[in-house]
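Sharing a chain and its predicted structure for anyone who wants a worked example. Both blocks are below, sequence first, tokens second.
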Amino acid sequence: LDPHAIDARRRLIALYERTGRDAEVVAEYRRLIASAPGEPRFRLELAERLMKAGSRDEAIEIAQALGRESTDPSLHAQRAELYTRWNLADLALREQELLVRLEPSDDAHLVALGELWWQKGNKKRALELWKKILGPRPQAGGADGRGPKVAAMTRLAEVYVEHDLAPEALDLYQKAAKL
């Protein structure tokens, strides 16, 4: 598909959005998807638009179908973000759990998963997940591995600060400073 045609369709969608022409927005997204079926971002955008228009079930079905078709972590991260915005906590949790499995060395996924549990009121589970940041680190930053350990301690302390856990953060910062 010609990139200029995609750009023209996207601009048309934006104009329809600005002028409140909801049916045309959805129709144009469907044409865009038909012309570029392998491009998941258009389907995610359509799902978001449908949710905004009140077509909740169709929006969720589109997002879920995308997840069944792909193991791409960035797509699953976008879905987790969508589900969070849509207040679909269980679906968001499932996506974040999948991301932790797909990219186990990416601490951002552990932090995000813990955040979802925290928001659901399960602070114990959130803390358990966040503490995994201190788990085994790849050896980088010196033969003794202190660099990655200090970085992990600092990252966890930042998470604690964000959640008003000052004593825990203080303890970690002090330990990291001594390494």
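Comments welcome. The CA atoms of residues 51 and 86 lie 8 Å apart.
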